[in-house]
Design brief:
202 residues; mainly alpha; 0% strand; flat
Length: 202
């Protein structure tokens, strides 16, 4: 994600640079299904943080979105029509499970918070939280947008505990740390944009 977002946010980058960024983001779903929302969030973050979506900038976002969609849909098509179908998190009455599990939402949130505050992270997540607040206060759009993409991706994955056929907290215990680890790089990119000179941040 970080490479794709960096290409999309590159100051002065033209349509080819944007298309390369979109292509890189489109590869995320090939790695894991969680890559689909992450690619969309990263593309949206880059679009929202751009100074303008009219005039010259529009020529950048069309190829970026097209490249991301084409490559990402390729992953979906292969997973849907070529590879053997495995068990989905949403097996059975997933909506009914989600409604029933709303009562354990505080326990899910507490587990995720405990994971993010673990010593293994060396304080990264509290630092990103402070950087996110600073980005909003200072109106640093690129930093705020990237940080928002990271937090939203975490929230999306945490929410799967409500709907999965697996035991909710056990499901998160098995995978939440790994999913969060993949978001450290884009989180660092958000912090870098916050610390960069204002005139260079898009």
């Amino acid at each position: 994600m970080s490479a794709g977002a960096a290409l999309l946010l590159a100051a002065g980058g033209g349509p080819r640079t944007a298309a390369a960024g979109g292509l890189v983001l489109g590869l995320l779903p090939w790695l894991k299904s969680e890559g689909f929302p992450l690619a969309v969030l990263a593309l949206a973050a880059a679009l929202w943080s751009s100074r303008s979506v009219t005039g010259p900038d529009r020529r950048r976002w069309a190829p970026a979105a097209a490249a991301c969609a084409a490559v990402g849909l390729g992953a979906w098509a292969i997973g849907r029509f070529v590879l053997p179908q495995g068990a989905s998190f949403f097996l059975g009455d997933w909506w009914g499970r989600g409604v029933e599990r709303l009562t354990i939402l505080p326990a899910i949130a507490a587990f995720c918070l405990e994971e993010l505050l673990a010593a293994d992270w060396l304080g990264f997540w509290p630092l990103l939280a402070l950087a996110s607040i600073a980005a909003l206060a200072l109106r640093r759009r690129a930093a705020a947008a990237l940080a928002a993409a990271v937090w939203l991706q975490l929230a999306i994955y945490a929410a799967t505990a409500l709907f999965t056929y697996l035991e909710p907290v056990g499901h998160l215990r098995a995978a939440f740390f790994r999913i969060a680890a993949a978001l450290v790089a884009p989180g660092l990119l958000a912090i870098a944009h916050l610390l960069a000179p204002a005139e260079r941040v898009r």
